[in-house]
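[job 4471] stage=fold_predict status=RUNNING
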Amino acid sequence: MKAESPILPDWRWGTAEGCRELDRILDRRLTLREKIQWLEEAEDLTLTLAAQRARMKEAAAAKGKPLDKA
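[job 4471] inference complete, writing structure tokens
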């Protein structure tokens, strides 16, 4: 992360607009390499969760208890 002045907490970040503002502030501080790393980690997490969900469905089907679709 680029060295800049510290980000002071703000109560507005608890709102939808404030959250987007905080995201924009943090995005400006990330380097391209950090953004790519974040995207790769998010993709890994998504794939891991999908594989786990598939294993749970298979285990439930083997026991004869299909999982509810949500």
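[job 4471] summary: The chain is about 65% helix and 0% strand.
[job 4471] exit 0
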